[in-house]
Amino acid sequence: ARDGLAKLVDDRDWRSVLASNFAGKMHRGESYSKQFAATELARAVSGLLWHAMALESRLIKQRIGAIAALGHDPACLELLIMQLVHLVDSGERAQMSKRAGDFVTLDELIEDIGVDAERWFLLERSHETTIELDLKLAREESAENPVYYVQYAHARIASLLARGAAEAGPEVSTDEPLHASERALVRKLLEFPAEVADAAERRSPHRIASYALSTAQAFSAFYRDCPVLDAGPEQRALRLRLCAATGQVLARSLDLLGVSAPQSMTRD
User: Fold this and answer.
1) Would the pLDDT of 5 be above 50?
2) Which is nearest to 150 in space by CA: 196, 211, 206?
3) Amino acid 44: pLDDT
4) Rounded distance, CA 238 to CA 169, Å?
5) Exposure pattern of 100-130 as b/e (b: 16+ CB <10 Å)?
6) Could you give the 3-state DSSP secondary structure of residue 88?
7) d(CA 224, CA 213)
8) Is residue 50 predicted with pLDDT exceeding 70?
9) 56, CA 20 to 30 Å: which among 143, 163, 185, 202?
């Protein structure tokens, strides 16, 4: 499941590169022998994943036609239609025009808000939805910024484990019932495998972003309601294990999105 999702968030996937290279040469009218093109396509015929913009309907038809002309079933081509991204700064949408040469490059966006925020904000919405990327929010280092919120939760867990002994220790046994916030966090963690599998199946990496944020919120409620380091020995050990499990799930979720999981952070 992780490999399936990684294909969505890593544009270096060889099948996507092959498809883009083949389509680009066909579109530009470059010399491309049918035999060589068929050989390349055959390597990926088991499943081509092609990204296309919503405004490229003519090119989409060309790509489907090219595959059929080469004797392959167009059903092997899986097209993800990407909607547009609008940059919004202080409530105003940036006006861009390719013809006028007025646009923001991806490098410029990363320089402005950082690579972690760029990846998060571009992946937190479905590819079928137009994205309004709030630059002011993406720059903030506060709980209002979702990627910062999730990263801060991970850093807080790392700090708790460092202060409370990161070693696993013996099996924990306690007769005390779980607090409602503990129970809610445990249930949330148990959803992780199914969430990843579903995100991969639906080609929906935004589901991982949503899950990571809700898990960080569940941890914050647990941290607010359940003392960890100040609890009794048995509860302390149990809650430290729960913190460790939460940290692992958050780190894996962020990794699937290509976002870092820092060990320490400051907060405004």
Assistant:
1) no
2) 211
3) 47
4) 10
5) eeeeeeeeebeeebeebbbbbbbbbbebeee
6) strand
7) 17
8) no
9) 202
Tell me which amino acid residue 109 is.
L
Distances (CA, A) of 169 to 172, 236, 241: 8, 12, 10
Give pLDDT tens digits for 157-172: 999 999 886 444 555 5
Token pair 């059903």 in the structure block, residue: 75
**pLDDT > 80? residue 152:** yes
Give the separation between CA 34 and CA 138, rounded to whole angstroms. Answer: 47
Check: CB of residue 174 under 8 Å from CB of residue 238: yes
Q: How many residues does the chain have?
A: 268
For residue 131, what are the β-bridge partners? Answer: 85
Q: Point out which residues pair with 50 in neighbouring strands.
A: 79
Which DSSP helix (H) or strand (E) runs through 87? strand 85-89
Identity at 66, one-letter amino acid code = A
Query: Cβ(50)–Cβ(7) under 8 Å?
Result: no
Cα distance between residue 189 and residue 53, in whole Å: 35
pTM, two decimals, is 0.73
* 10 vs 17: CA distance, rounded Å: 10
Residue 30 has pLDDT above 60, yes or no: no
- Give dist(CA 215, CA 249) in Å, integer: 9
* Helix orientation angle between 180-190 and 206-225, rounded to the nearest 10 degrees: 160
Dihedral angle sign, alpha carbons of residues 254, 150, 156, 228: negative
